[in-house]
C-alpha cells in the first residue's frame, strides 16, 4: 500500500503539503532544466485505480480536460460539481499520471537538486523512480521538492507526477470558472549550491530607501557573507549594525543565516503604473573564501503604498484605480497560459486605459508579475481561496485553517518583491471567519508595507475595522450606495470596488456614470471591472470535443471558424452547469476587444478635451507623465462635408495641467453640425504600444445643426399596400413598429426579457385601425398592438418628398403598464445587395444610450458584417447611438439613404431579433441576404443586471407618446451622407 492510499491526501485538508519546500521569492529559472513537453500519460478513474500497461501522451503544461475525451471541461459558478460535503470528494475522481525520464546534469554533482512543479490541479503527488518525494496542494502556486538524496547527477531518473483532480482543496478552489485537471504551469529541475539564498526580501520606497534582507541556509561556516549590486547605483552597504544586533540577540544559528543590505538611492525614479521604472538588483551569497555560492536576480521598483484617511496613495498620490479582473484563460489550452498570452492580455489592458489588475481569484504565474512590473499595472494579488458553495461551513472549520494561512502566506512569500503588487487579497467569496483573520495577521507581520483586503470581511460594514479589511472593496454595489457611503461622513477607508460593471455579453452600461461619480466624489477611488476575457472554449462541432492545444486557424476576429463554436457551460455535456455566465469578459475568447473596451479607453484617457464656446482646452490627466509621449491630429467631421484631418501640436503640459489648444484653421460651415475630434496616438514606441497606436479620441461640438427638417418639400406619390405599409423597391419588409430586442444577457438574467415575453413584445400583433390616403399621396395608418398588459397605438404617416425619398413620421403611445420595454422604433428589411454602412454620428464603435462615451461624431463607414459584435451567446448587437443620417450601399455606391429628425439609436445587421434570440451559438445563425434595420425613437440602456445593478432610470424607455421621423431615399440620388468620405482607421 502506498502512502497515498492510506493517507488519502485528497481528503485531508489539514495536509497542505508534504516535504514541499517553503515558498521563496528567489527565482531559480537560471540554469534550470525545463521539463515541459510531451510526457507519458494515463488518466485513471480514481487515485486508487491500477495503472494500465499502455501509456498515452499528454503535453506538460497542459489540462487533460482539453484533450482527453474521458474527462472534459465542466463549468459551474457557485455550485460544486458534486454533492459531497467538504472535505469529501467523489470516488470517481479523475487522476492523471504523468511520467517521463529526466537526465540530471552531471555538473550538478555536489549540488542541491530540486524538482519544481509550477502548478497542478488540485493535488500533486511527486515520485522519483517510484519513491514518493512530496505532495503539494494549491492549484495556483508552485511546489518545490528537494530530490538531492534520490537522484544521481549524470544519471537518468523516472519522474512521476500524479495529479488528483478532486480534493478537499477543490472545496476552497470553487471559483467561477471551468473545472480542469492537469499540470498547468512549467516543470523544471533546478539546482543550488549546498549554501544557498533561501529568501530575499526587498523593500524599496519612493524616497530611494532600499533594504534587502537575505535568509541563508546550508553549511553556515563562519565567514559567509552577502553582497548586492543595483543597476545604475552600485554596491549596497552591509547593515553591520543590524547584523551584529542579530548576532548579539542570539538570532544566528548554524542552519539559518540572516543579513541585511541597504542603500539610499537619492535619484531613484519611482515606480508607478504610468512610469514603471525598474532597477536590476543582484544579490550574491559568498562563501568564507569570497567565492559566490548563490545569486538572486530581480528587477525592483521604488514605490510606496499607504492609506491616509480614505485614500489609497501610491507614491503619495491618490491614483484612481481603473482595474479589471483577470483569470488565467485560453480558448485552446484552458488554464494554461504562456508568457506571450499573459503579455498580450496586459498589453491589451494598457492600450485600453487600465492601470490595475486583480488576479482573480488566485496567484498567477510569476511571469505575470514580472510583466506587470515591466508594463506598469497595479496588482491586487489574490490568494487561491474561494469556498463559495460551502463558504460558511469552511470559514471556521478548523481543518481548513492551515490551508487558508498556507495559501495566503505562500503567495506573499513569493510575490513580495514585486513593485506592481500594491494590495494583498485574502481570496474571494468564502464568507468571513477566523481563518481570514489568521491569514491577515500573518501578512501584517510579514509585510507591513501593503494593505490587505478581503471583500467578505467588510461586506455589510464598509467602515469595519476588521484586520482583514484595509480597503472597502465591495462587489457590484450600486452607484447610489457607494456615493451615499462616501458622503455619509461614516467612511473610514478607501472604497475600491473589487468587482463592478459585469461584462457579460452586450453590457457595461452606465460605465460613464460610474466614472463621473468616482472622479468627483472624494472617497471613491475606482474599481475592477468583472472581467477581462470571455471563457469560451473552442469546440469542434462534429465531435463536441475541445479543439484543444495546437489547433490553428480555429478563430479570427472573435469568431469561431466554420465547424467550430465557442463552448460555454453545458456544451460538453457538463451538469450541473451555469451556461454562458463564464462569458463575461471585456474581450472575446480570442482577445478581440468588445466595444465596451473603447468606452473604457475613452473614460480612462490620459488626455481630455473641453470647449467653452470659444476656446478648446486640453487637460493632462496623468499623475507622472507629461504629454511628450503623445501626438495628435484634429479630425474635422462636418455633417455635409466628409472628414479631413489636420496636424496639431500638443502643448508641453505637466501632469494635472491644462492649456488652450488652437482649433483647426479653416472650419467648414455647411448648415450642419460641426464636430472636431482630437485623435491622440503614441508618438513613439511604448513597451505596450508601437508608435501610432490610438490612445483616445475625445471630440467637441463646435456648432449645432441649423438646417430645417424635413430636408425636402413634399411631392410625388408613396406606394402602399392594402394594410397601409410602404411598398418600396429597396425593401423586402416595410417599416413596422418594434418594441423588443433580442435579450442581452443582462436582459435575461436581470428579468427584463421574461417580462417582455409575458407582455408579448416579442410577438407583437398588429391590428389596423385605419388607413387614410390624402390627395397628395400621403398615407396615414393607425394600428394597435395589443399586449398582455395594455395596447400600444402606433401611427405612421408616409409622405413622398420632391427629392424622391419618402418621409416617415411616426408616433407610438405606450400605456403605463409597459413601463420598461426594450425599444420604441421602426424595423424594416432591405433587399439583398447593400453591404456597407456609412453614418454620421458617434462611432465607429457599437454604442447604446448608457454606453456611448467612446464614439466621436463624424462620418463613419463599416461593412455591415463588421457592425455586429459576435457576443458569445447571440443577442442584441451592433447598435449605433445618436445617429443623424446613414446610407446603406452596394459596392457600386447604390442603395438606400436615411436621414433622421434627431440623433437616434440605429442598427443594421443580418439578423432579425427573433433569429438572435432563438440561437444559443453563432453557428446556428444564418445571416439573411438583406439587412435588418432598426431606427429607434428610444432604446433601453444595457445596464449590468446579469450580475449587479441594472441601468439607471434615465436610460429606461418611458411610457407615453414617442415621436420620430425619418426619410428613406436612394443613396445614389441625394444620399444621406454626402461629402468626401468617412473616417477610416
Ligand atoms: C462574483 C465572483 O467573485 C466572480 O468570481 C464572478 O462569479 C462574478 O461574481 C460574476 O461573474 S460573486 C457573485 C455572487 C456576486
The helicity comes to 10-25%
List ligands, each type once. Answer: 1-methylethyl 1-thio-beta-D-galactopyranoside
Number of E-state strands: 56
CATH architecture of the largest domain: Distorted Sandwich
CATH class designation of the largest domain:
Mainly Beta
User: What does the radius of gyration come to?
Assistant: 31 Å
Describe the sheet with the most strands: 12 strands, antiparallel
CATH topology of the largest domain: Beta-galactosidase, Chain A, domain 5
Query: How many structural units, i.e. domains?
Result: 5
Which structural class is indicated by helix and strand composition? mainly beta
* Tally of helical runs: 14
Distance linking N and C termini: 67 Å
Percentage of residues in DSSP E strands:
35-45%
Tertiary shape: globular
Mean pLDDT across all residues, rounded? 95
Uncertain residue segments: 973-985
EC number: 3.2.1.23
Organism: Streptomyces wuyuanensis
GO molecular function: beta-galactosidase activity; carbohydrate binding
Catalytic activity: Hydrolysis of terminal non-reducing beta-D-galactose residues in beta-D-galactosides
Gist?
The chain is mainly beta and 985 residues long. The strands form twelve sheets. Strands 45, 46, 47, 48, 49, 50, 51, 52, 53, 54, 55 and 56 form a twelve-stranded antiparallel sheet that branches. The protein has a seven-stranded antiparallel sheet with strand order 1-10-9-12-7-3-4, with no helix packed on it. It has a seven-stranded parallel sheet with strand order 30-29-28-27-26-32-31.
